[in-house]
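JOB MANIFEST
job_type = single_chain_structure
chain_count = 1
residues = 138
[input]
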Amino acid sequence: MSFVLDNSIALAWCFIDEQTDGIMALLDRVTQTGAVAPPLWPVEALNALRSAERRKRIDAARHRRFAEFLRALPIAIDDEMVSRIWDTTARLAASHELTLYDAVYLELALRRDLPLATADGPLIAAATRVGVPVLPAA
């Protein structure tokens, strides 16, 4: 696994108006070396696609194609999040003023000693504070 994948990056792969060279380079990297995400990742991804469909940003067919595309990527789902959510992850969320949703990505990056691929501002700030490299690098 080459990095921890946050949905702010994965979903950008689906929407052309959110793509940058750095974000698309991460897609190449994930197809070559894989990535890791918490169990929350597919729930968040599918929820975001459902929201995009409800807002008429995409239709049902595109929703299905994007879901299939994301599901086919070599993303390993980490199974240790549940045992850490009540203590380690909750403390990270509180100490860095993150949502628990964001803190699970930070905890995973810290535990696995991997960079974190995210475009989420508060998550970038927290990762920087604790020394986790953030992708795509500026």
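[summary]
The first strand starts at residue 4 and ends at 5.
Strands lie at 4-5, 35-37, 75-77, 116-117, 134-135.
exit_status = 0
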